TrEMBL record:
Belongs to the LysR transcriptional regulatory family. PANTHER family: HTH-TYPE TRANSCRIPTIONAL REGULATOR, TRANSCRIPTIONAL REGULATOR-RELATED. The keyword Coiled coil does not apply. It comes from Pseudomonas graminis. One of its GO terms (molecular function) is DNA-binding transcription factor activity. Residues 6-63 form the HTH lysR-type domain. It holds the Pfam family HTH_1. PROSITE patterns: HTH_LYSR (PS50931). Keywords: DNA-binding, Transcription, Transcription regulation. This is Transcriptional regulator, LysR family. It comes from the Bacteria. The keyword Transcription applies.
Length: 308
């Protein structure tokens, strides 16, 4: 890729001419001589081979090509300025990226609210979000490829910040054979039916959390797939209530009337990596995740803002 012929300083100069209404005004704003500003713009036009300005009376106005190029150049100059700011923040210890791994059962809505609030404070710090299931979260954290982790398990050797509980409920389609019994259900009733379970994304020690040892078991890769299967009448499953609330309201799923164990409430924890100290951006994100963790799921979202 060939090097650009026009510099960022030249684009800034052209912007100043247009924004301040002329060469003299731009020269005053840039603390340069008028001849220097005029030469810079004339040199740009020669380098680009396209006229950017035309004289209309005593005023220089943009040509059609100039309007298009100036509009694109504003984003270019803005990106360059943000890049310089990011370098400055990194020099002060600000992270370029925070890597976050989350159990797929954790409410997405709370996470989105936290990340929305983080954006205007991020100073260019990126967030790399990764979803795993069950022990997959623990493995990613232990492998050192995550700075923060949200898991429904207690991870040995780590002190996690306790967060909210997530309700899992046993459900099946209203037309499922279990609901046709029209009575309170027990463990033996479930054993003879197809149970849909979500595959643990961990590779080393995958867990069969929630499996009852049913004669028939279908294993799927995501909570959304499990919800789709069960909503279609295929088997029963324990699923996070916040994910299937709409299906329950629409009559596609119905909570099973179990005599015990019909709902589970695992506590989730927020962990941080032990491989490196927490940077300021990571600490801000931790505080926001914990803050929005206790907010109602139907609370309004924070208004999105531009990055500072």
């Amino acid at each position: 890729m060939k090097a650009p012929r026009v510099t960022l300083d030249q684009w800034r100069t052209l912007q100043a001419v247009v924004d301040h209404g002329g060469f003299a005004q731009a020269a005053e704003a840039l603390h340069r001589s008028q001849s220097s500003v005029s030469y810079t713009v004339a040199r740009m036009q020669d380098q680009l081979g396209v006229p950017l300005l035309r004289i209309d009376g005593r005023k220089a106005v943009l040509t059609e090509a100039g309007e298009v190029l100036l509009r694109r150049s504003r984003q270019l100059v803005k990106n360059a300025s943000q890049l310089e700011d990011l370098a400055h923040h990194m020099e002060q210890g600000w992270e370029a990226e925070v890597r976050l791994v989350v159990d797929a059962a954790y409410p997405n809505t709370r996470l989105v609210r936290a990340l929305t609030a983080f954006m205007p404070q991020s100073r260019g710090c990126r967030v790399r979000l990764r979803e795993e299931v069950l022990s997959g979260v623990e493995e990613v954290l232990l492998e050192g490829v995550a700075d923060l982790a949200i898991s429904g398990f207690s991870i040995p050797g780590y002190l996690g910040n306790e967060m909210s509980k997530v309700e899992f409920v046993a459900v099946a389609h209203p037309g499922h054979a279990l609901h046709q019994l029209q009575r309170e259900l027990n463990f033996q009733d479930l054993e003879s039916q197809l149970q849909v379970v979500i595959r643990d994304s961990g590779r080393n020690q995958p867990r069969d959390v929630g499996w009852l040892g049913a004669e028939q078991r279908w294993t799927v890769g995501s909570l959304a797939t499990a919800a789709a299967f069960v909503s279609s009448g295929l088997g029963f499953a324990w699923l996070p209530r916040h994910i299937i609330e709409r299906e329950i309201q629409d009559g596609l799923l119905k909570i099973l009337p179990l005599d015990k164990g019909g709902s589970r409430h695992p506590t989730f924890f927020l962990y941080s990596s032990k491989d490196k100290p927490l940077g300021p951006a990571t600490q801000i994100l931790i505080d926001l995740i914990q803050s929005f963790d206790t907010a109602p799921l139907d609370a309004p979202f924070p208004a999105p803002q531009q990055m500072l």
